[in-house]
Amino acid sequence: MSEPLLNVEGVYRSFGGVFAVRGVDLTVAPGELRGVIGPNGAGKSTLFNLIGGQLTADRGTITFAGDRLDRLPAHRRAHLGIAIVFQGARIFRGMTALENVMVGAHATTRTGFLRGTLRLPPHRREEREIRQRAREALGRVGLADWADRAAEALPLGQQRALQVARALCGRPRLLLLDEPAAGLRAAEREALAQLIEELKAGGLTMIKIEHDVAFVTRLADRVTVLDLGRVIAEGTPAEIRADPAVVAAYLGTAA
Amino acid sequence: MRSRVVRWAPGVVVAAGTLALPPLLESGHLSVYILLGLAAMVTIGLSLLMGYAGQVSLGQASFYAIGGYTAGLLSVHSFPPVLGLLAAPVAAALFALLVGVPLLRLRGHHLAFATLATQLILLSLVGQADWAGGAIGLQGIPRLSVGGYEFAEDISYAYLTWAAVALTLVVAHNVVASRSGRGLRALATSETAAAASGVPVGGYRLAVFALSAAFAGLAGGIYAFYLGYIAPGSFPVLLSIEYVVMAVVGGLGTLWGALVGATAIVLLIQVLNTVGTQPGMPSYAPSVLSYAVYGLLLVVVVLFLPHGIVPAMQRRMTQTLTVGKR
Amino acid sequence: MSELVQYLITGVGGGCAFALVGSGLVAIYRVTRVVNFAQGGFAVIAALTASTLLASGLPHGLAEGLAVAVGALTGLLVGLVAIGKPGTPPGAALIVTLGLGVFAYAVEVLVWGDQPRSFPGVPGAVEVFGARFQAHYLLIIGATLAVFAGMGLLFTRTDVGRALSACASNPYAAKVVGISVTRMGLVSFAIGGALGGLAGVLVTPIQLVTFDYDVTLIVGGLVRPALTLAGGLLLGVAQALVAGYGNAAYQMEVALVLMLAVMIWQAARKPIAQEEPA
Amino acid sequence: MIEVEDLTVRYGAAVALDGVSLTVGAGEMVALIGPNGAGKSTLVNTLSGILRPVSGRVTIGGRLAQVPEGRQMFPDLTVDDNLRLGGWRIRNRDTGPIYEVLPDLVKLRRRRAGLLSGGQQQMVAVGRALMSRPDVLAVDELSLGLAPLVVADLVRHLRELNSERGLAVLLIEQNARIALDLCTRAYVLEAGRIATSGPSAELAASPEVAAAYLGVAA
To answer: What ipTM describes this predicted complex?
Structure first.
């Protein structure tokens, strides 16, 4: 097996004394699409925020392509190549769809306040390049025709796609997706699944949190199952489906 | 091509009007024109801060004061006045960086409270500082001179002020349109998503705070040279609120809004002053009138024109245009 | 020793006023999420009303009571303008209250002129541990304690109080059970007005009514009830001590820096990501 | 009891419900199932009047009470106070009958609701809804985040309320098994539209429903 791209080791995080994530290990190889599933309150979103930098771990280490991540602020992690598609619609209101996506290029561009204010030639060049990349990213998620619309005026499905475009515009090495299919119509879900498959074919490493079991098992190479803040199983989708502990914890009913 | 002309036309008209106006104004009106320009500079900065970066400041007049005192003190101590003028925005920005590090941990109304408190502390300290003239103020500030040219007449201050307004407008416009500006506008609605896109949220908040302070500081510097006298009483808390009124009335998130808002309020104050100083009015009439009108204006605009005058007009215009096309 | 006791008591007396105004602000904030920048105006209007009523011959007690009622009514009016229009977000309502606070100042000057006013409080002086101070301080402290106890009972023992707590902690659930969140918001504005009014009426006999209520407003940065009481008292005592032992001129700076420090300390303890709506 | 005709609800530009029609008869138990974000909670909030529809009609023949998603306690108030506020609408302050129906709450009555377990909170939420003496109960995500045994207990209570008092129930569930088990009829909501509907037994046997909502266990 090749050197892992992301390595999470023994990570803990508590809120007000209650551990949401306790001792989670997770290793993701380059090019892999990893699914993370678990019932509500299993710690999926907390784990996701620990990798993305929205939360810091109480204990444990996270390394990404050889760099220690766990003490870095979120924007530095973005500069290292981690991009995030949040649950819901965290878009930038008051900006057009294109401008939203252009923000995504922030991590890989560098014009500062001064050069931007003086409008020096390197800045103009970079602006052209960012615009170009943003248009490409919009095209890739099928939003090319929406570029000049206000982002908040897009329907939910398009807002989710917009977030994906914003993430892609930063040319990430690792893409985190938090329940990307939630709330989408069947057709939108299908389009999203196809996009993810294309990205995977292009070699992008992804971690995808899901509630919808069918959706995740269809796409993922490997699946990690969380319950009550711990990893209770890990394996290929087929192995996970056959694991009785998973079925019990995840479906957990028999009422 | 035509759309380009349409986009630039209002700016050109305004600029031409601005240049043509000073020689036509009598001296009383000229001083209003200068004060209007100064207010516009502060409001442009505040609009950048509130409208684009989503940070509320109720202490913008403190940066105006820092600029004024920096310019005043330097030139009173026989430094070349032009150095004072250049130092004014720098000192204001440095002060903003200094207080911004702790204060910008706060958000929303907490930040509003904290900037208000900062201004009160500053005014009170200046009022007790003998080296700055104490409560009586700093007197005998020389007129501004650059090279051999002395800004002796009001009309030269009018041109200086409006050149500075143009400068702040251009800087603000370029910042908003740049990569950093996009980062600022992004963090105004979601700091989390902005940070995840690589925007250093804390640093940017601090930078825009300092930039808005620099605009106010530059205005304060010109003010000190123009009046030749400044005191803590020249920068009351109400002045800070006035800037917020100007920014909100004109419309947050548009630079033209800041200009329109400042113009509307300054002209309104003049009308109220004229009414308030009519014979038979009590001595406090002008201030009561202006307080009452500010208050009502703020309430009415927020409740019924929540985006301010300029965006409301723009919407009205696009509506008429699209209806016309049908 | 006697000096220290004197400063402590006068400080607590002043601090009670801060605490009352501040807790009015907190009551409004918790129920409506609106920071009421017109809060200081309630104290001033009530105090001025009391001075007029006393001057026109009304007995003590009745005059002050009516003045507090006027404070409550003012609070209700401010609330109607600030949150009465459906769909007004808290941030916009904040700016509305700022406007109303400025407007209130104009009304005050128009009705009462711009000269400071005062009226007598409880006459006489008291001696404790060799420290002499005006007996009125005891009234302030006693009344504040009674009001805080009463508020505690109101919020835990009455249905309206429970409904107010409900709106504060979970407005969605309050709507689910059929509580009108707007109406409860107006009730909280009236309570805020009454508390502010009480502070104004209590404090005026020991210090002139001035329009400088900015410091008091800062207490509102402390939006937790217990912190407001503690913060108000601390502020009062710190001011009295600085004025007594140090330089009276720096009273206000001390108060403001203290408030800022507490606000920043509070902010540093909570992560931002959790506050943003998705 | 509940009659919904061609209901459309929007949040800004986003359409949450798109032409939804459904009925719940008196004394009937009906399930509304569907994945996260399908619009289930939007429907309940429209029924209880918290949200306003863009178009369509909602008729409720009697009093509707809502057990909201996520329990929605008043965390600082005691269990008893939480229950009392449930009767706010009809000025009913007598919590006694609730303790008879849900005896498990008796020993918790003085505890602060925020400190209870999820299952206990769900019990309080049901009791709070009953305080308004409803004819129909809309229960939003009964099982969410609860252990199977706790869910079974809650389900038993709902059955009793239905059979002994004739209370109609509209059960909104992500967990299709529980819902189809408890209710006689069901609607499947997907992305704001009713995808299918019918008797529970039929839906439970349908392979599409099984695949989409029972996931791996299909």
So the answer is: 0.79
Mapping DSSP to helix (H, G, I), strand (E, B) and coil, where does residue D73 land?
coil
Residue A60 backbone class (left: φ over 0; alpha: ψ -120 to 50; beta: rest)? left
Inter-chain CB proximity C271 and A55 less than 8 Å: yes
Residue B242 within any structural domain of the chain? no
Chain C residue numbers with beta carbons less than 8 Å from the beta carbon of B238 are 102
- Mean pLDDT along residues B23-42: 90
For A240, the closest chain D residue by CA position comes to: D216
Q: With a CB-CB cutoff of 8 Å, which residues 209-268 of chain C face chain B?
A: 214-215, 217-218, 220-221, 249-250, 252-253, 256-257, 259-260, 263-264, 267-268
- In Å, how far is C12's CA from the nearest CA of chain D? 30
pTM value > 0.90: no
Residue B19 domain flag: no
Query: Which residues of chain C are under the pLDDT cut of 50?
Result: 209-212, 272-278
Chains C and A touch (3+ CB pairs under 8 A): yes
Cα B51 to the center of its chain, rounded Å? 13
Inter-CA distances, A120 with A110, A112, B179, C146, Å? 13, 11, 13, 67
Q: What is the pLDDT of residues A6-56, one digit of tens each?
A: 999 999 998 877 788 999 999 999 999 999 988 767 888 899 999 999 998
Q: For each of the domains in chain C, give its residue range(s) and CATH number, in order of start.
A: 2-269 (1.10.3470)
Is any Cβ of chain A less than 8 angstroms from the Cβ of C278?
yes
Mean pLDDT of B92-96: 97
d(CA D185, CA C27): 47
For chain B, list the contacting chains (3+ Cβ pairs, <8 Å).
A, C
- pLDDT 10s digits, C196-243: 999 989 988 877 544 345 555 555 555 566 677 777 787 788 777 877
**Residue B50's domain spans which residues?**
25-236
Which CATH architecture is the domain A1-81+173-255 placed in? 3-Layer(aba) Sandwich (3.40)
How far B207 CA lies from chain A's nearest CA (Å)? 8
CA dist., res. A86 & res. A101, Å (int): 14
Q: What percent of chain B has pLDDT over 90?
A: 46
The closest of C213, C265, C97, A54 to B109, measured between CA atoms, is C97
DSSP state at residue B107: -
